[in-house]
Amino acid sequence: MTICDTAKCSGCFACQNVCPKNCISMTEGRLGHLYPQIDESLCISCGACSRVCPQNNLPEMSVPTAAYATRSKDSDEYENASSGGLAAVLSRKMLGRGGIVYGCSSETEGGIKHVRIESDSDLWLLSGSKYVQSHINLIFRDVKDDLENRRAVLFIGTPCQVAGLVNYLKKPYENLITADLICHGVPSQKMLFEHLENVGAASGKYITFREKAGLYIRVSDENKKPVYYKESFDDDYYLGFLCNISLRDSCHSCAFAKNERVSDITIGDFWGLSPQAEIKKPYGISLALPVTDKGREFFEACSDMLENEERPTSEAFAGNSPLRKPVGKAKDREKFIKNYEKKGFKKAAARSLFKKRLRSKTIRLLQKIGLLKKLINILRRK
User: Fold this and answer.
1) Distance in angstroms (rounded) separating the CA atoms of residues 85 and 76
2) Spelled out in words, what is the top-level CATH class assigned to the domain 6-52?
């Protein structure tokens, strides 16, 4: 039995969560991404897995009617956040109401996965950007249990993960807020951990992919001390992600990469924010796109913790391509895949990313030269 077209499967885990016989396991595909496999000896052909799949049954989606440039008012939270700290503020608000937060953990031990957070003391686990596909495992069942027990829940994930949850739940819950992340696409965990092994960072316990200084991969030990730290263009995994060479097949035909959104609120970085915007932005700025009335009410309830400036939705859509269309395929993606299947990540990256790495380093060098020239001119004028 086939649940959906393999090329369109997003790995949302909805099918595994809904199966009444627990006969669906997730197995690795050609790039290490997980796909459902049915144990036919246990399957009762109920069709629940096919019906719950967002690729077969797209949930209701709506276009946001407002856009906000926003940042946390808490200086420590803002300075430590990937951009403006919006996800942290939404999470703190939900926890402050006695609710539950579900999101992707930065812990690498046991694989990068969604976890359930009930206390402020554990909220740091969700901090930082993770440019890899988080495994949902059976956590949709936990979300439903919390909702049925009348607990308020905030679920943060990629659009396809939110869609999987919405279909799994089958009905709306007033005590659920869903927030989807503006998603560029996802490499696999297999590829990430193979890379970390290659660079001697397999002992790390936590991982993030953003710093205030820019795009850096940081792998830290249990004491938060870095065991590996590289800028994006100098790290093969990161560069492959940015160049669209290692993403999941479905990312290139994503049904959720458009103006219509599947969640109550869409969040991300506000790329393309006008220089005329008045919001204070010494570091990054978050983008908030309330979609439903429930999402707008929750966002407005966080206004005491946020500095907000309303902006045109057209500005947000223009600056964030995943809000308009799926990410394109790299020209040499198939070559990379063939090399990866035969020789592993290190050699595949060496053969496919050499020119891209050289180009990135050249651009970076020219930028530094440009900054140096500006500094020299300033000093000369003095």
Assistant:
1) 10
2) alpha beta
